[in-house]
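Task 17 of the worksheet. Students: predict the tertiary structure of the chain below and write it out as structure tokens. Keep your answer in the requested format; marks are given for formatting as well as content.
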Amino acid sequence: MQFPHHPLLPPLSLSLSSSLGSSPLLQAMVVLANPAIDQIALVTSPKPTPYFSTIPVIDLQDPGSPDALVEACEEFGFFKVVNHGIPTELMERLESEAVKFFSLPQVEKDKSGPPNPFGYGNKKIGPNGDVGWLEYLLLAINSDSLCQTSVDFLSEPSARLFRSALNDYISAVRKLAIEVLEVMAEGLQITSRDLFSKLLMDDESDQVFRLNHYPPSPLLQGFNRSLTGFGEHTDPQIISVLRSNSAAGLQIALKDGRWASVPSDHQSFFINVGDSLQVLTNGRFRSVRHRVLANGFKSRVSLIYFGGPPLTERIAPLPQLMGEGEQSLYREFTWEEYKRAAYKSRLGDNRLGQFEKHQ
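Model answer:
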């Protein structure tokens, strides 16, 4: 069965096994340009009422936000932030520049890749065989702005508007991440309000920015199937700040293992607890497992800020967050050590497993 060629990605074909539809994860693969490497899993589309209607919404202007934020981190490791103070125009400006970039001829985009680890990527996610129905730009951040050396084309005069939009957006969401971490500390009744946020404010903090584009795959609608855009994973950093356009696709895993679809909201930001924050809170906060499915007629564009500590920062459960007699669940490690281990793993791996204390 042949699908029409999408201008942004190579031609694809769909091969179905005899057990199609017999399990939640179908035995079906989309085979792209190199069948030996590029296989993207096809999964069942969500049921008619899949949306996560009880998603925690944190109003940063609400006096009760510290307690509500802590509760959301404990239960889901995920929440939506409203009244964040970031102008819609600033968000839409970067989205517009991202759409212009992803609309360029493939040969032009390929000049900024392959990612190593920064740069333009198409289908392949990382060095270990993970693939998805997406293309992306992965960028390094220096202090509170874009590190232009991560992608050469951003230094060119033609990229002036894109570069300006990136710097303005990154500066704003970094400040938002810092504010969220300080509200979090307040909710945990920690004396030092900057206990977490100082890790992002450090001049040596390790920050990354990702722009993802999930092209539409309209013919899949007729099959009630969704292509894996970005496979299930947790984020290794402390915190992630996500904003997308109005196309849906994001799902998070609940405590019982079910996947819940998150309604799109291009006016708000979604926050993920990362692996490092789970360790700092000794497991009190959940590092949320999430994925993106590409299944619609509309392109999904998402912008994600990842806030990590300095490479030399030692990560271990914080004594002030542990109760009397509570034992540490994790052995101490540096962020550089964990980042290196994460880079060697597959997306779906339990990265924290090798750092857990087995008591």
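Marker's comment: The chain has seven helices and 18 strands. The two ends are 52 Å apart (CA to CA).
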